[in-house]
# Entry
Amino acid sequence: MIIRSLKHENEECRKMGYRNWIQWQLFIRGIELRPDWEHPEGVLPAAVSRSRWYVKCPYVNCKINIPIDEMESLVFCTDCLNVENDHKPHRVEWQSVEHLKKLLGVRRDHNQRNYLPHLGETHKHLETENEKLINGIYYPAADSFGGSISMKDFDHGIQHT
# Structure
């Protein structure tokens, strides 16, 4: 399964590379700042939202999703400029990427391919949700029925009452 990364969706980033693309983003906005890539500070977990890699900016006045490339080791927020981190990038923590791809890969709907470690979600949470998949789709409403809905309740896409 492919989890889309910044280079999949941004031609300029693909051509320039992530760090040069960040510098270019700052330049076109007229910001004369060079992130200190040699001295990163802090660690942020890689996350997935709707089949796309990102890191959640940790700062109260920002909180945006920063798109990243798979296995990118550093991340810099071009919105808040990492001001609260003295303009230093953060390291990216990657947790069992191949296992995560397996867990999310069984979900047919790309909108349900999410992994949010910054909100406390773990691989175990994904495994538990995957046990409740019906034909590759997670129906949260099924939980409200005490988990009583299962594949045997469906015949050719029609629920029996």
